[in-house]
Amino acid sequence: MTHDQSYIVIQPHVSEVPAPLALKKGDRVSVGALYDGPEGWPDWYLCSAPGQEPGYVPGKILDRHADGSATMLEDFTNRELTVLEGEELRGQRQLNGWLWAVRIPDGATGWAPLDNIRVNRPDFQSRKS
User: Fold this and answer.
1) Are 42 and 58 in contact (CB under 8 A)?
2) Are 65 and 8 in contact (CB under 8 A)?
3) What is the rounded CA–CA span in Å between residue 19 and residue 56?
4) Cα distance from N-terminal residue to C-terminal residue, the chain
5) Is the peptide bond prior to 20 cis by the omega test (within 30 degrees of 0)?
6) Which CA distances in Å does 82 have to 18, 25, 103?
7) What is the reported pLDDT for 122?
8) Beta strands 109-113 and 117-119: pairing type?
């Protein structure tokens, strides 16, 4: 877990999730295939929920059942954050190769791949403290 750590984007990322999942703790989802892309992001499962487009969910927040379904252990959205090189982020949580972050200064939130960011220098003073 990361709490309010400063990051700098070192490589742009464009969201590939036009309609993010919005799941609540206790929701039931159908669990599909494990993500197997070249990036090597571990433990993400393609899940579907009624009325929503399928999307990837981290395995550690799924209480899996024998029938191929799961119960959400916490609230979750797979909203990705589109970021440009040089932008500042405030990281709030790392999970399975991604960072949940707030983009400074506009406050947009979403997941950004850890490979595309780095921890900001400790002596860096945010422009928006």
Assistant:
1) no
2) no
3) 12
4) 21
5) no
6) 11, 26, 9
7) 57
8) unpaired
- DSSP letters along the chain, please? ---SEEEEESS-B----SS--EE-TT-EEEEEEEP--TT---SEEEEE-TTS--EEEEGGGEEE-TTSEEEESS-EE-PBPPB-TT-EEEEEEEETTEEEEEEETT--EEEEEGGGEEEPPTTPPPS--
Amino acid (one-letter) located at 128: K
At 8, give phi and psi (nearest 5°).
-120, 135
Strands 69-72 and 76-77, by their bridges, are unpaired
Structure tokens given for 65: 């059942």
pTM for this one? 0.86
Residues ≥6 apart with Cβ < 8 Å to 120: 5, 6, 7, 8, 88
Banded pLDDT at 116 (limits 50, 70, 90): very high
